[in-house]
Amino acid sequence: MSMFKWTQVDPAPGEAVGPQERLSWGKTVGLGAQHVVAMFGATFVFPLIMGLDANLAILFSGVCTILFLLVVNNKVPSYLGTSGSFVSGVFAIRAQGGDSADVTGAILIAGVILALVGVAVHFLGSGALKRLLPPAVTGAVVMLIGFNLAPVVANTYWPQDQWIALATAAFVVVATVRFPGFWSRISIFLALIFGYVLSFLADTIFGQITSPDGTGEVVTRDRINLTGLGDAAWFGLPTGDLADGVSKVHAPDFSLTFALLVIPAVIALIAENTGHVRAVAEMTGDDLDPYMGRALGADGVATAFASAFGASPTTTYAENIGVMSATRVYSTAAYYVAALVAIILGLCPKFGVLLNAIPGGVLGGITVVLYGMIGLIGAKIWVDNRTDFGNPLNMVPLAAGLIAGIGNVTLKIGDDFELSGIALGTIMVIVFYHLVNVGRPRGEQVRASDVTHTH
């Protein structure tokens, strides 16, 4: 069967639709639009947080989704949205004086590394990867990536408009937990609309606000700034410069120092992609282990490709797994439709002005929840894999790395090189864990006398 031929089916209520099947094209288009809504909030929030262009990210999310589907031969239904795992590393790069070209250059290198990991997994199997990055290590790395971002919320977004931030955070929490079905799955998107409207009303009723802007300078300004909306074209590539003066579409610059700050995100992407493939396999009943390496490699290539043009890194999206779980439609045809819709939206600069005008207070309310959730996903990895923290082999070697990563501890090596934050924490977690576990049988417990306890 051709990769672009789907068997049309008319399933009974509750009956699943497989990856190489589809409903009528009218219903498939509707499902594709639903996938766009599901991925939309996080896909353009993370670029804004990283200082990259949101419209370009949406455009390349569509392009990269098509690339991913081609590499996995349409066997793994997935949407590739913007990855939040790089946010901490990006802030570290900017804190050390790097600009957007340095950011995308570092992310491109990380994408190439992930692609090479995918090739290795495809030909060697996933056993070696599991031994290098067991759940105890993966959970710790994901946790420190999320919690390292806490100062960003406290110092950058929340102070811009604390009351809008608090109201938006409350909306995210309530919508995610209490809204029914599909509405809870698009809570970030709904929160953006809520915060946007609330900020507009605040501008209308209370007037301008005096508070720090995104650079930390205290200024009096409108919460929503739509300057340039009238001049923006309806169709075309994103134009103009980012906040740091780098063109929205730009070529990356490369630095080993900056690359080391984002490479730990590769571990998070490995965890995300493997978890995604296994979740899809469980839902569809298909054996997708032979496509695990392809999925990792495809995401790596997609991340590198997007970064080469100044766009954001990608990852497979859990939001869209939620849509499949709710609808039981796993058709890859719907994902091609979603990708095409995203490409069309990404080619509308007027739409991009609206995205880039999202108030800082709204982003503060969303990120205070999102960043915490990223960190707690690390804890979920531990829980799901029954990591035993009564065993010092797990608890002790991870402790130092977690504090180093979350607290931005710095290790200076010579006059011109240093490791800090996430990069240093990740290295410590991996090295310390294998240092104490080398030569021990998997799962072996140690006696209390084997370690020194601190009370």
Describe the structure.
The N and C termini lie far apart (64 Å). This protein has helices spanning 25-50, 54-71, 87-95, 100-124, 127-132, 135-147, 150-157, 162-178, 181-185, 187-206, 256-262, 264-284, 292-307, 318-327, 332-346, 349-356, 360-384, 392-406, 421-437; strands at 7-8, 21-22, 80-82, 209-212, 218-221, 314-316, 410-413, 417-420. A hairpin with a 5-residue loop joins strand 4 (209-212) and strand 5. The strands form 4 sheets. Strands 1-2 form a two-stranded parallel ribbon. Strands 3-6 form a two-stranded antiparallel sheet. With 455 residues, the protein is mainly alpha-helical. Helix 1 (25-50) crosses helix 15 and helix 18 (392-406) runs antiparallel to helix 19.
Q: What can be said about this structure in brief?
A:
Helix content is 62%, strand content 6%. The C terminus is likely disordered.
What attributes characterize this protein structure?
19 helices; two-stranded parallel sheet; mainly alpha; two-stranded antiparallel sheet; 455 residues; single chain; disordered C terminus; 8 strands
